[in-house]
Amino acid sequence: MRRGRVAQKQKTRQALLDAARYFLDLGHSPSVTEAADYAGISRATAYRYFSTPETLAQEAALDRLSTEMETIAADLGRDSDAEQAAAEAMARYLSMVMRNEPLFRAYMALAARGDGASALGSRRLRWLRAAFAPLAQAMPQARFERLLTALSVLAGIETVVVLRDVCELSSEDTEETVRWMVSALVRASLEV
Fold first, then answer.
1. Do 9 and 39 reside in the same domain of the chain?
2. Which of 4, 60, 120, 161 could form a disulfide linkage to 20, CB 3.0–4.6 angstroms apart?
3. Per residue in 61-101, pLDDT tens?
4. Parent domain of 140
5. pLDDT tens profile 8-65
6. Is the residue at 56 inside a domain?
């Protein structure tokens, strides 16, 4: 009986997250009641899962992105050329950011308002640490940590905003520029 209740709670939570992602994909941060109504869940139940719209939006964004980030991280290291593998991993991540641009921009707006959008940032660092772990053996720990810090600047919507909105680059030129930056950072980090 207990197992069924846990499964139902997970299903309800997932339905709310799916509803929130629907609105985020449209570039709109939904209220808890909007997500509840769209998911066909009572508003009271929805508020038991997510007490604020910010929490709902953050969790919806993180839910979608985590799976893609983990897949990219798992693929790194299969290429023997560390510089090329790192550039490819970051390009794939950037492509995922651009495919989910409305979601990332909505999340960035939450962060800009100071609504505690730090969970994505901490996941970004965990993802980078996992994705670039093969490089950790090739350099001193302090240099690896500096590389992760530098790469974290390139691993998000902020890079897309600067390169596309400010510099007016195309998506292709944005990807090529990020590949070049990652290659340069990795090359510099690997040099003795």
1. yes
2. 60
3. 777 777 677 777 666 655 567 788 788 888 888 888 888 78
4. 61-190
5. 888 999 999 999 989 988 888 899 999 999 999 999 999 999 988 888 887 887 777 7
6. no
Tokens of 124: 């970004």
DSSP letter for each residue of the chain: -HHHHHHHHHHHHHHHHHHHHHHHHTT----HHHHHHHHT--HHHHHHH-SSHHHHHHHHHHHHHHHHHHHHHHHTTSSS-HHHHHHHHHHHHHHHHHHTHHHHHHHHHHHHTTS-THHHHHHHHHHHHHHTHHHHTTS-HHHHHHHHHHHHHHSSHHHHIIIIIIS---HHHHHHHHHHHHHHHHHHHH--
